């Protein structure tokens, strides 16, 4: 909300402080106004008295009343040569309520009397004593009604209030604009920089560059710059470690599969009648087993992004044939697995041959291991044809088997790393790697079906016709 902003709070503080200052100015101001009002009445009364004295008493009647009316008083008493003399007089409409002596009155008394006058609801008759102007006598004393004085005090107070509001408004506006320009704007820049950096902390271009000329904000920007620089460096180091660990995990995963195949072949070597082969085979099997265990122990490392694929136009039939031949060698002697392929002879794909080989090998290997686990005869099919995906031309590759299907738990996180494999004992990395490799080609890897009749995956890769 605006009321909770820094600028708004500064604005209210300025208004409050200006009004507080005005209170300290208002009371002396109205006190001064009252004093000057009474002194002016004394001066007018003295002039009227001197006019009467100068005429040797010839001014009388209506003219004397006019002099009193112009002076704003009821009577005038002038003390000259220690003699108190009533110079001008007229009927007083009431009793005298108070007497005020302006000679030597202190500031506190004047302010007290001014506030007392303002709080009254109606006028009253007062007597005022002061020094004559230019020492024309010992003192001058007048009697007057305070009704005009009270009205003047309130009118003067209103003008002071309006002037105060105008000054406080202009001051608050100027301070508000100054705070916006010199404090809020730099702070918002710092906030925008923090938000932008939070979105991509690895991007060094989003690190704030200190620019403020205000020392405190400049120090905050420099501290933020140092923190962001250090954090970006740490994130880069962390990413490198994650990538290194993920790369080791990927290499270990694929190397483990290769070593497993080699271990199976080494097991067959033990059946050889050659004495030298019979002696070397157990050692070879043991070495391969240790290598497989070492690979499996590294699969706990973090996941890293694969390198971008090196796309080229490849004949899909030759690639599938290599995958099938490798898997045929790994089929156990007791398993009866049939490999079927159905691909157009002229079908080509625009892909990275090594990465696509890894994807197909992973899917076919999972199918083979699932069939071997059933100890029943089975079929693995690899089909391919041209197909569109979301209106884009491409090639669809289907890899299916007649196995028992995937367990429900495996289907929930099928393409998530380390969330459980598609087969018992798996770590859940193979399909995650395969899905990522396919995404790197701009394609899609999805599970079409998995039930009691078997499992089928579909790979779609974009390819110009």
TrEMBL record:
Show the PANTHER family listed in the entry: SENSOR PROTEIN CREC, SENSOR PROTEIN RSTB
Looking up SMART domains in the UniProt record yields:
HATPase_c (SM00387), HisKA (SM00388)
Question: What organism is the protein native to?
Answer: Roseinatronobacter thiooxidans
Domain (HAMP) spans 181-236
Q: Give me the Gene Ontology terms describing cellular component.
A: plasma membrane
Q: Which CDD domains match?
A: HATPase
Residues passing through the membrane, by range: 6-27, 160-185
Its protein name is histidine kinase
Compartments in which it is found: Cell membrane
